Amino acid sequence: MDQPSHALLEFVNVRKAFASTVTEDSAVDVAVDGVSCGIAAGSFVALVGASGSGKSTLLKTVNRLGDPDSGQVLLAGDNVQDAAPAMLRRRIGYVFQGVGLFPHMNVADNIGIGPRLSGTRASDGRIAELLELVELDGSYAGRMPHELSGGQRQRIGVARALAGNPQLLLMDEPFGALDPLTRDGLGKRVRALHGQLNLTTMMVTHDMAEALLLADRILVMEKGRIVADETPRSLLKGAGGPIAQAMVAVPREQAAALAQMAQLDGPA
Ligand SMILES: Nc1ncnc2c1ncn2[C@@H]1O[C@H](COP(=O)(O)OP(=O)(O)OP(=O)(O)O)[C@@H](O)[C@H]1O
């Protein structure tokens, strides 16, 4: 696929290794191995790949949870390593599995933590608006995290990520711990918010079906490199190479097996 000419986000030969604890012969474990790629403003990109392929490490170079050893990450042309943390918090929303709500703070304070760290206060009206975006009514503002279901907590995580009106939304397995119905509903909601709020979204997921249904571009990682960069449609038509196709085969075979079961004669 062609690289977008006006990328909001750009990875330029990004590399990151960790001291190896796995093998004795290699001193380092290369998590991200020279990734270069542009992410166009407004796109919804899914980052997929086997466990340990480097997805989270790559994502964390964007909001500086883990700086690269070499290479650059540019946000609207600026190197994120030169950016003030408050500016990055404003421009980048981050949602991850487990959410990380502060247990001693109510929902409103959790949602407003980003603005507060930047020296402003989210008004009650703004908190209500953010709750509405994630389809929760205003009465949730005063609840404590332990009074919420996992799905509600994840919704609060999304509201918190949107509190600073970010340009870019990063999500790391955001729906991984949810039951399939909640996961489906929240995925659709996030996709709708992506359009409504003119976001650029980058989502790590293990679930190729989720990536195919939600994203408009899919990057497949393997051993720290991007081995396929395709649209869902082109992946479904067979593009992307053997690693990508092995991942697409899983939901395709499940769908075929279910369709076959539905056609079997006999009592329900
Ligand atoms: N903080 C760390 N310290 C040491 N090694 C790390 C650290 N974070 C990641 N790694 C290693 O870097 C490699 C890539 O890990 P990463 O979490 O980016 O993969 P991933 O594709 O996101 O995996 P998963 O899908 O299981 O979350 C792995 O070998 C992992 O062990």
TrEMBL record:
GO terms, molecular function: ATP binding; ATP hydrolysis activity
Listed InterPro entries: AAA+_ATPase (IPR003593), ABC_SmlMolc_Importer (IPR050093), ABC_transporter-like_ATP-bd (IPR003439), ABC_transporter-like_CS (IPR017871), P-loop_NTPase (IPR027417)
Question: So which domain of life are we looking at?
Answer: Bacteria
Question: What Gene3D superfamilies does this protein map onto?
Answer: P-loop containing nucleotide triphosphate hydrolases
Q: From its record, what is one biological process in GO terms? A: quaternary ammonium group transport
PANTHER family for this protein: SPERMIDINE/PUTRESCINE IMPORT ATP-BINDING PROTEIN POTA (PTHR42781), SPERMIDINE_PUTRESCINE IMPORT ATP-BINDING PROTEIN POTA (PTHR42781:SF4)
Provide the protein name. Answer: ATP-binding cassette domain-containing protein
Naturally occurring in which organism (per UniProt): Allopontixanthobacter confluentis
